[in-house]
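FAQ
Q: What does a multi-component entry look like?
A: The components come first, one per line:
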Amino acid sequence: MIARREWLILLAALEGAPDGLDPVRLQQSMFMFSRCPGVPLSSKYAFEPGVYGAISDELYDDLDRLVGERLLDAVPEKGAHWSLYKPSEATFERARRILRRAEADDLVDATRQLAEIKQYVSSADFGELLGRVYAEHPEFAVNSVFHRAAA
Amino acid sequence: MTLIAALRCREGVVVCSDSLQTRGARGRRLARSARKVYEPRHGWLLATAGAQDVAQEFALRLQRTHGLAPDADRLELKSQLQALLRGLREDPGIEGRSDHVELLLAWWPSDAHQPVALHLFSAGAAEWVDGWAFGGTALGIEIASFAVSTMRYLDPARLTLEQARMVAMKILRDTIETGVEGIGGDVQLATLGRGGVDVIGATDVRRLHDAVDLWERRCAELLRGRTSQVIQIYDR
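Then the predicted structure of the entire assembly, as tokens:
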């Protein structure tokens, strides 16, 4: 079994966004992953409709833990309050092991889907990313300040 | 020294503050984190700026005062609150009683369509809050007022409570980040809506910070396309 925080490590290590991902992109990535068919239930974070879209407090907590364990680097982004979560050498090393286990557990499709999500969130701007999440999962847009402001 | 703010919106009131408390004379000042936004009694919101012992005593007396019902006439309540503060300032047992204090209070009468928000000054004056109100250190108020003026396209009366929380967070944190002496720490927020008071915890504060960052990045996207391009231009 691959735990949900291990999928988060894998997401960080996969190709795309070499400077790291911000919390909003990480949250929306893991949310989209949780909606993919074939992803085991135990690999999914529980999301709720939050102030900007789908949000998981457990994911926020895991980000803090992974930074504390030096499995991710939190790099402050200039002009922002948040940090970008950037993979370190330890992230890549752990991700390689996770990938091998995913292959052994017949989770290659899930891994491929996560890689596609990483590619997408790395290239999409926030308007496009949130627009997609709101359009595909309107129930997660109900508390969004942006959604309601645009309505 | 503090910055406190109240924002009346379509669905209620947001009350917020910085969290830095300073004590002592210039050059020997000690700083620590202090709570400045309270729910002193059920359904009431309070933010305090000024001497901490006066603020705490006011909150305590407000909590214990009998017959202070949100449904009472608002002018009557205003007089009661002014008398409460006056009594406190005449109490020789309170060290900072003569220092300048400002209080922002909000409550929602059950038969009213709108909440009530009041700005109370230590000299006895009081103003009803409509839109924004600030209290605390003069430079902090000036900067926060300027920050509000840069968002004059937003009509507070049309904002939802969630949106007002985000706007208040942005104003407070932008002011804090200018480094005004005596203002600092994280933003404390609470809201008063139809459903009652909600004192925002650390998890929701984090979400709000991310929402503000996201809002700013979306503004940057409108100007220049990708956010990273905008930052690179500033860096040159």
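Q: Is there any commentary attached?
A: Sometimes. For this entry: The CA atoms of residues 170 and 212 of chain B lie 6 Å apart.
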